[in-house]
Amino acid sequence: MAKRAKRKRKPTASRSRGFRWKSWLVLMLIALLLATSLYLIYLDRIVQLRFDGRRWAVPAQVYGQAQQLAKGVRLDEPGLRQILDRLGYARVKHPDRPGSYSSYRGRFLIRTRAFAFPQGTRDSDYLELKLADSRIISLKQAASGRAIGDYQLEPPLIGSLHPAHSEDRILVKRGELPKQLVSALIAVEDRNFNSHFGIDPIGIARALWSNLRAGGVVQGGSTLTQQLVKNFFLSKERSLTRKLNEALMALLLEYHYSKDEILEAYANEIYLGQEGGRAIHGFGLASQFYFNRPLNELTLAQNALLVALVKGPSAYNPLRHPKRALKRRNLVLQLMAEQELIKEATAQRVAKVPLGIKQGSKRASGYPAFFDLVRRQLRRDYQEADLNAEGLRIFSTLDPQLQRQAEQALSRQLQRLEQRGVAKPRELQGAVVLVESDSGRVSALVGDRNPRFAGFNRALDAIRPVGSLIKPAVYLSALEQDQRFTLLSACRMRRYGSKGRVARFGRRATTTIKITVRCPSTWRWPNPTTWPRCDWGWR
């Protein structure tokens, strides 16, 4: 019996649907891959443009006059100590590092700091200085004994012009970061920093395990690179999208830039505290803010405290929560010892050291009236954007010693007048301006009875009659015109305008008076006669 021929099966509807589904899946995967690639290109461009451009707006820094040290200069022990304290020098038994000094019975040993003056950079020196009868009687190199003719300490920083967004920082290079600070930071925040590629799966797993064991969040899995991306590129929004962007941008950042470049950016960007409306960013400024010392002069304990603040500047603020900050700092030391970065004995010894906070705020100038004058002149001559972003260094004419003396003199004089019954206690106000007669430089300026008051500046804005201060300008301008005026020239009273005339209190006004009589006396009314007849070359 013949066999039936097999019929060819026609494609079923299910097979057709399966083929179409696979085709759509492939197309969707291709579209997703294309979209992901375009998105990565977009993120990559953001990373490179921002990281290669100007990363931070750095405020302009304003300095006062540097203290001149030379044999014969008037200076007493309290005054010199105040100058050194103002500059953040540490008083120690044996000054073995820059920014330290010792003193005993008029003999000072000073390790100065290097400083970039406008004329050039000056290296650190070791000086021996002796005082007697409120004068410098000897100045020489402490090591060699060689006499020094004159020497300038670094000028005091009197204020900064901050950016509009109220962030402040002192930029530091990678090579300027202390080794102890870098070691502590990596030990606490990202121990695999030198080996991972932006994200650390091992660190994430370790953090998850620690959190599960503790029953809460006790450890994070973000790398230093991810933290930098979060602070530098992204908002504070907490979402899955932001976390994904953080990981992708961390990978891109590691691909384009070296570990040193990333670490340098992190050290300048990290938020470490708040002073009023001003945000403290970077280890450089935090060192000045909490310890009033440059970053390269910090001890192991101080470096550990700065690293402790990374976890939470508010929670571990040493000014508000010293016990909490001390505990966190000692944990940093313990982790360094566990990873054999320091010896266990060293960690235990340093853990007993107090926090040593010596706040050196730069938020507001210690000389607000003078700084107001500087600000007005700078805004007259420079663009606002340059002052707030270019990191200019401005050397002013303020003499801190004369400024202190002017403040004290004004306070004493006002108190003396009030004690005589001229006014009620603390009712009088005043201002002081000290100007160098030969150069016209303003050496000191006080704008209020309270020299730290940053409000109305009486020295610049108060409208007052100048009185006899106008005499030298009028008379010298007149005497320069020797064909018209001499010391014996007589001027007659004339009336200008209709608002009355000036007469000396308690005396009858005469119609004629000679210049030789007018100048040393308090006669004022003939000045309007001489004034309009003078050829003012500067008016």
TrEMBL record:
Occurrences of domain Glycosyl transferase family (ranges): 165-336
Catalysis performed (reactions): Preferential cleavage: (Ac)2-L-Lys-D-Ala-|-D-Ala. Also transpeptidation of peptidyl-alanyl moieties that are N-acyl substituents of D-alanine; [GlcNAc-(1->4)-Mur2Ac(oyl-L-Ala-gamma-D-Glu-L-Lys-D-Ala-D-Ala)](n)-di-trans,octa-cis-undecaprenyl diphosphate + beta-D-GlcNAc-(1->4)-Mur2Ac(oyl-L-Ala-gamma-D-Glu-L-Lys-D-Ala-D-Ala)-di-trans,octa-cis-undecaprenyl diphosphate = [GlcNAc-(1->4)-Mur2Ac(oyl-L-Ala-gamma-D-Glu-L-Lys-D-Ala-D-Ala)](n+1)-di-trans,octa-cis-undecaprenyl diphosphate + di-trans,octa-cis-undecaprenyl diphosphate + H(+)
A Gene Ontology biological process term: regulation of cell shape
Domain of life: Bacteria
Transmembrane helix listed as a keyword: yes
Main location: membrane
Residues passing through the membrane, by range: 21-42
Name of the protein in question: Multimodular transpeptidase-transglycosylase
Species, as recorded: endosymbiont of Riftia pachyptila (vent Ph05)
